[in-house]
Amino acid sequence: MLRGHPWVYRNELDGVPALEDGVSVDVFSHTNRFIGRGFYQAEGGIAVRLVSRKPRPLDGALWIERLSEAKSFRERLFPGENVYRWIFGESDGLPGFVADRYGPVVAAETTCAFYAAHADALAQTFLSHEGVEGVRIRLAGHGKPLEYGTVPASLECNMDGLSLEVDISAGQKTGLFLDQRRNSAAIKPYVAGARVLDGYCYTGMWSCRAALDGAQQVTGVDTSAPALEQARRNAQRNAVNAACVFEQADVAAVLERDRRYDVILLDPPALAKTRPQAAKAASVYAALNRAAMRALEPGGILITSTCSHFVGREAFLEILKRAAAAAQRRVWILEVHGASPDHPVLISMPETDYLTCVFLRVF
Length: 363
What we know:
Distance between the termini: 46 Å
Strand content: 25-35%
CATH class of the largest domain: Alpha Beta
Strand order of the largest sheet: 14-13-12-15-16-18-17
CATH superfamily of the largest domain: Vaccinia Virus protein VP39
CATH architecture of the largest domain: 3-Layer(aba) Sandwich
CATH topology of the largest domain: Rossmann fold
Structural class: alpha/beta
Number of strands: 18
Shape: globular
Largest sheet: 7 strands, mixed
Helix content: 25-40%
């Protein structure tokens, strides 16, 4: 906390008066030095999320400043684009709040009561930016999301040459997995003429990218029927439906079939959302990647990810090393990436570094 971490844990406090969930509070050291201003959380290990290191009002002027700063940086990253993660929680100075922009619509979500009280002001600040016509804020425990302006259930957006349908109302996260944006765009050297298996394909972002980059055939696999229907529409939208086949199945079972691929993409959901789940997650990651290595042709490419913060980069590389030994395959590490830079890592907060994507060559 004193070194810049924006969370104050409950066991770090001498005592907490009776406070309402989400109320603004000031935090002081044991010597009565001001540490920061933030908001109180009534449940969980995190008692306070710090919003400012200065005693300033947590109101409209702050929303204008934080949103403008964040947007300016995203526009530097993606000039001429209007699809990006606009606010990445603690890294952008709005802890516990994330917001993605999909062209004219901003889709945001939070678990913090503090933002429920400020939702109207935040939405109006988003709407004040040119080109933003609608805002949707999903508040955990508040039932129906709040909507402002014009918010369609789904819309089409363009990102790095891809045309993708975004399900604002029922999609996972806010509609797309934008943290893999740069990683999916990096597959071009590996997929030309290849037979590709896209495991956990969701709505087909990686699949369509692989086909556009010259893959001979792409098989996308997921357990969600609605996501697969959306993936088929995305393939048609990008004129790659002839190269893409989508199947509702368990990825682990598909990898055990007697079929070989030139490239396998694995992007499973978070398997360790808490520290006690890390050991079990490591076992699942090891089995999954071992099967993928065995399903590759010699010299094939495995692009594999973990979005579990509690399975960090070093731990994931160790898991892949064990998987290679178990599969009896010689493996090169070609590239190691984190999340797209519109998900910046706050150097004082390791928790913001949660995604590891590894490109491997398997012999």
